[in-house]
Amino acid sequence: MNEQTKGRFLQLLTNTMAAYAKPLPEAGIIAAWIRELSPFPLVVIEQAINAYKAENGQFAPLPAAIAKICRTMDGRPSEEEAWAQSFVCISETETVVWTEEMRDAFFECRPLLETGDKVGARMAFKDAYARMVADARAAGRAAKWEVSLGFDKQKQVHVIKKAELAGLLPAPIVAGLLPNHSAEAQAMGACPEGLRRIKEMMADMEAKRAAEAEERMRAAERDRNAMQAAKNAIAAKVAAYQRGGHE
C-alpha cells in the first residue's frame, strides 16, 4: 500500500466495517490499520479481507488478523501465472511488471528459451520460481514489484498505469517512468533526466541479475558434474568389488 492507495483503502475499510454493522474506526485505530498493512499492495489487502469475511461472518476483523492473512496471501503470483506474465519478456517490445522472483527465475530459464526449448524453459522457470518464493516467504520478505520496460511506448503506459492502480508500484517510480501522465507526477519533480537515471538504474539491475543468474546456473552445473563424478567413482568401486578386486 502506498500514499496514492490510502484513500482507496479507507473506502475499503469503511465498506468492510459496514458489512459488520460497525462504524469506521477512529483516527488512531485507522493509523494502526495502515501501519500493519503498509507493506502489502492494496489488491492483496482486499483479497485478505474477502478471505477473512468468508470465514468470519460474525466478528469484524482486526489489523493483525488481516496482516497475518496478507503474509500468506502475499500477492506473489502462482507458478503458472508468473510464467505467463514473465514469458512476454521474450519480446523486447513488451513491458512487464514483475516480482524479483519472477525476474530472477526468468533470467535462469532464458538461455533455454533462446534455444527454442519452451517446455524446458517453462519447467526451469517454475522450479526456480518456486524455490525463490519459498525462500522469500521463509525469510518474511514482502513481494517487491519492479518494471522491465519494452520498446512499445503505448504498452508501457497501459501496463504501468494498471500496476499503479493495483498498488504494485510506488508513485515516485511511476512519476519517473511516465513523467507526463498526470499533473501530480509533474509536481513530484519528474523530468527527462530523472527518467534517464531510472532507466539506467533498472538496466544495470537487470544486467546484474542476469549475470548472477548465469553464475548460479554455472554453479548448479558444477554441482551436477561433481555429483555425477562421485556416482561414477562409486559405480567403479562396486564393479571392482564384484570382480573381486579391491581399491
Q: Could you describe the 3D structure shown?
A:
The chain has helices at residues 3-19, 27-37, 42-55, 63-72, 79-87, 100-114, 118-138, 153-165, 171-177, 183-187, 192-242; strands at 96-99, 145-148. By secondary structure, the chain is mainly alpha-helical. It is built from 11 helices and 2 strands; from the N terminus they run αααααβααβαααα. The radius of gyration is 24 Å and the shape is extended. The chain folds into 2 domains: 3-72, no CATH class; 79-172 and 180-222, no CATH class. The longest helix has 51 residues, at 192-242. Helix 3 crosses helix 4 (63-72) and helix 6 packs antiparallel against helix 7. Helices cover 70% and strands 3% of the residues. Strands 1-2 form a two-stranded antiparallel ribbon.
Regions with little confidence, pLDDT below 50 for 5+ residues: 182-195
Strand content: under 5%
With strands numbered from the N-terminus, the spatial order across the biggest sheet is 1-2
| SS-derived structural category | mainly alpha
Order of helices and strands: HHHHHEHHEHHHH
Helix content: over 70%
Outline, from the CA principal axes?
Answer: extended
The profile of the biggest β sheet is: 2 strands, antiparallel
Number of strands: 2
Mean pLDDT: 80
Quaternary class? single chain
Query: Please, how many domains?
Result: 2
CA-atom Rg in angstroms: 24 Å
How many DSSP H or I helices? Answer: 11
Cα distance, first to last residue? 65 Å
Protein name: Replicative helicase inhibitor G39P N-terminal domain-containing protein
Keywords: Coiled coil
Organism: Herbaspirillum chlorophenolicum
Coiled coil: 195-230
